[in-house]
Amino acid sequence: MVLTELQQSLRDEVRAFARDDVPRQLILDMDAERIHYPRSFLEAAARRNLLGLRFPQEYKGRGLGWKEEVVALEEMGVLGTSLACLYSLVSIVGEALNVFGTPQQKTRWLRPAIEAGLTVAEALTEPRGGSDFFGTTTIARRDGEAYVLNGQKRFVVGAEGADYFLVYARTRDDAPGHQSLTAFIVERGPGVEVQHVYGLMGTRGGGAGRVYFRDAAVPTENVLGEENRGADVFYQMMIPERLTSAAGALGTARAALEIAARYSDRRRAFGQKIRAFEGVSFKVADSITLLDAARALVHATAHAVDAGAEPGHARRLVSEAKKFATDAAWEIVNHAMQIMGGIGYTNVYPIERLLRDSRLALIWTGTNEIMNLVIQHEYYKEMGLPHCERDVEADAAHADRAEEKVYE
Asked: pTM value?
């Protein structure tokens, strides 16, 4: 990609942070689950003013766009999925606060998150259903100037250390899910219990846990947006959830590709470097092409969102970017392991960790099968809009044979 001077400068800033401020031992300790939540990582990023890049300067952001944020996210992805995800949470939860929050809510929760004075998590998934978001069973009942919250969420990345959560709960029983959910900011405190219960295949050390709400009192001023309009928040959140996943995957894929390509240029077999064999070099070529294509789609999507793309079109693009980039990353990391052979399957190189990490990206923030549902749904909606381009269906010799065009 051709980057602007601002984007190049930001890329170099984040690269310097990843190189100088993130100890190798932190990554190893997280993967070995000796560290469950690296708050120090977020504090270090905040000191460099690298959190919440898109948000207004009055809340300590930089007022940048998605075009810049995806540049930063790719560099964070080089560190692995756990740290990239924790970094992204400020952008994800911050989106809800920035778009739907009152000035008071932004001052109370957005600014401290950008400064890493408070840490955040998004409590979305429930035990009874992952992709079935509108089947939420967590309930919030109004009681005077507060809501009483009961239910549970699981697979909450960052739960272990979060000071507050973005939570969706059902606030009415007489309407379907998309008309009965409300978004809340729920602070850690009485009635909120976090359990670190997961032994994860990869993406370890990010504090993933289960959160129980047992008669948790949530003040009415903690509602984001309007009561029973949580769907509005959810649809907006598709953008940061999926675009951060896509951009982070670029860094993970790039790291694996670079390790494998360097190895293939050093490792010798049958009297020559293994990069001389098409079985190896073509995997490198395929990986380069996949990475460049994924990066192009991610950057094009960021540009479209910054330019104010129609909401349905933006949802389609971010779903395409998330699906394609995470699928590409998974394939690139697998190519890297195949190139390296047996040594890639050991912890002498980080390929095995990157492989374990990257597998989760095909599942979280909506599985890639759900991405397909969104992509085709929004595309068919766009097909129904008035169009002014050429009617290519008419470009056939017997296009006027209406009696041959039988649809039922």
From this structure: 0.94
Instruction: Tell me if 116 sits within 8 A of 42, measured CB to CB.
Output: yes
Residue 130 is predicted with a pLDDT of: 65
CATH number for the domain formed by residue range(s) 231-383: 1.20.140.10
DSSP string, 93-110: HHHHHHHH--HHHIIIII
CA-to-CA distance for 200 and 12, rounded, in angstroms?
32
Residues 6+ apart with CB under 8 A from 327: 362, 368
- The CATH code of domain 5-119 reads 1.10.540.10
Contacts of 399 by beta carbon, 8 Å cutoff, 6+ apart: 393
Burial (CB < 10 A; 0-12, 13-18, 19+), residue 122, is buried
The CA-to-CA distance between both ends of the chain, in Å, stands at 47
Beta-ladder partners of 212: 152, 193
Which residue do the tokens 């190896």 mark? 280
Distance of alpha carbon 133 from alpha carbon 131, whole angstroms: 6
What ranges do the domains of the chain cover?
5-119, 123-228, 231-383
Burial 255-293 (b: 16+ CB within 10 A, else e): bbbebbbebbeebeeeeeebbeeeebbebbeebeebbee
Q: Which residue has the tokens 């190798």?
A: 24
Which residues, including other chains, have CB under 8 Å from residue 244's CB and lie 6 or more apart?
69, 73, 84, 85, 88, 91, 92, 365
Spell out the SS3 assignment of 223-239.
EECCCCCHHHHHHHHHH
> Is the CATH number 3.40.366.10 carried by domain 123-228?
no
Residue 354 and residue 201 in contact, taking contact as beta carbons nearer than 8 Å = no
284 contacts 272 by C-beta, under 8 angstroms: no
Per-10-residue mean pLDDT of the chain, 408 residues long, equals 94 97 97 95 98 97 98 97 96 97 97 98 85 83 96 94 96 83 96 89 94 97 94 94 97 98 97 97 98 98 96 96 98 98 96 96 92 94 82 92 90
- What residues contact residue 59 under an 8 Å CB cut-off, 6+ apart? 52, 98, 106, 107, 110, 111, 114
